[in-house]
Design goal:
It is an enzyme of class 2 (transferase). With 376 residues, this protein is of the alpha/beta class. The chain is 50% helix and 9% strand. The protein starts with a helix and ends with a helix. It binds nicotinate mononucleotide and 5,6-dimethylbenzimidazole (DMD).
């Protein structure tokens, strides 16, 4: 069995007994039931993932930033030169980026993985040299990747998840760096959700109306080139689940090497039953790929934040994920996932540390009073 097959086979549903136990435990804690809102659901899900209640605290945490370049950059979809990808990798390694500041704040490690940067990167502490190719090909002219390249990048992501968990990480966070990767993300999201390019293509790092209109047409052209454009008679409605071979074809046709690696990273985390906090639109697009290949992967995924990219809202809606933080961020690198990390950790800590009504001698709700009379 290949590493990908083996990983997919290891992705299992949540443990129902642990889910039940966590729900019951939440109801016994000294707070009105449900008063921690979405955080209660997060804690229950992580108990189901771990197969026990309470689940292990999701710490220490590790961010993996997958970096790669994109052939579609040649179509003029971003104002930034391609070399900024390699320059920002150097900045991450030097500790000078926003991701480093946010990671330092929560004690997370930062690992940068070169899966496809279009420049030679010298060895450096914190850098994993795993280049599959020096960037993808232009998706408007042909497939962005060969099937072999896409699989190699996915396997790299799986291996990085395994290595970080092997080194002790109990929570994995996604990060990405790749000038023009919001164009590839939009194409992936349109292909998986069946939504039209104009609904899922955003302004990325910041573009004017004219460039945005052009970017939408580039996404449309790429989808049309690969038979992925949702039209009334194409059968691509977005309602039918995408099969695994089709998911791999879509990934290779319009994805990036970092999307492939992130899809592997998410699958790898789920197979190890380690929670993975997703960053923005690039991670969301990769999660669509991973979920098409192994739907139970979603049990391990927490949407860290809602990106300002319209395609990201479409993605989390499609996957049924609820972003924890909503601050109009559109940076990537893992920054939104890192801001959400204390929320995920707090959600689990409640199951470990909060007293029950019985143990603390606090009276529960008066059973004689109905909900209606209390709110009157
Ligand atoms: O994470 C997001 O949702 C996000 C939204 C917009 C831009 N980015 C980052 O910006 C870069 C891609 O932007 P662009 O405009 O060149 O496609 C890439 O390095 C991403 O990490 C990231
Ligand atoms: C400066 C810069 C920093 C980034 N970090 C993630 N994507 C980025 C894109 C740019 C352009």
């Amino acid at each position: 069995m290949s590493l990908i097959e083996e990983t997919i086979a290891a992705v299992r549903p949540l443990d129902e007994a642990a889910v039940r136990e966590a729900r019951e435990h939440q109801a016994r804690l000294t707070k009105p039931p449900g008063s921690l809102g979405v955080l209660e659901e997060v804690s229950v899900r992580l108990a189901g993932l771990a197969g026990r209640c309470p689940p292990p605290l999701p710490e220490p945490a590790a961010v993996a930033i997958f970096a790669a370049d994109h052939g579609v950059h040649a179509q003029g979809v971003t104002p930034w030169p391609q070399e900024v990808t390699a320059q920002m990798v150097a900045n991450f390694l030097a500790g000078g980026a926003v991701v480093n500041a946010f990671a330092g704040q929560v004690g997370a490690t930062v690992t940068v993985v070169d899966v496809g940067v279009a420049a030679e990167l010298g060895p450096a502490p914190g850098l994993l040299a795993r280049k599959v190719a020096p960037g993808t090909a232009d998706m408007t002219e042909g497939p962005a990747m060969t099937p072999g390249q896409a699989r190699q990048a996915m396997e790299t992501g799986i291996e990085v998840a395994r290595d970080l968990a092997g080194d002790g990480a109990r929570c994995l966070l996604t990060g990405d760096m790749g000038i023009a990767n919001t164009t590839a993300s939009a194409a992936l999201i349109a292909a998986f959700t069946g939504l039209p390019p104009e609904r899922v293509t955003g302004r990325g790092t910041g573009i004017d109306d004219r460039t945005h209109a052009h970017k939408v047409e580039v996404v449309r052209a790429a989808l049309a080139r690969h038979g992925l454009l949702p039209t009334p008679d194409s059968g691509r409605s977005g309602t039918a689940p995408v099969t695994r071979p089709e998911a791999e074809r879509i990934l290779a046709a319009v994805g990036g090497l970092e999307h492939a690696a992130l899809a592997g990273f998410i699958l790898g985390a789920a197979a190890l039953r380690v929670p993975v906090v997703l960053d923005g639109v690039i991670a969301g697009a990769a999660a669509l790929v991973a979920a098409a290949m192994a739907p139970d992967v979603l049990g391990a995924c927490v949407a860290g934040h809602r990106s300002a990219e319209p395609g990201h809202s479409a993605t989390v809606g499609h996957l049924g994920l609820r972003p924890l933080v909503d601050l109009e961020l559109r940076l990537g690198e893992g920054t939104g996932a890192l801001l959400a990390l204390p929320l995920v950790q707090g959600a689990v800590r409640v199951l470990h540390e909060v007293a029950t009504f019985d143990s603390a001698g606090v009276s529960g709700k008066d059973p004689g009073r109905s909900h209606d009379t209390i709110t009157e």
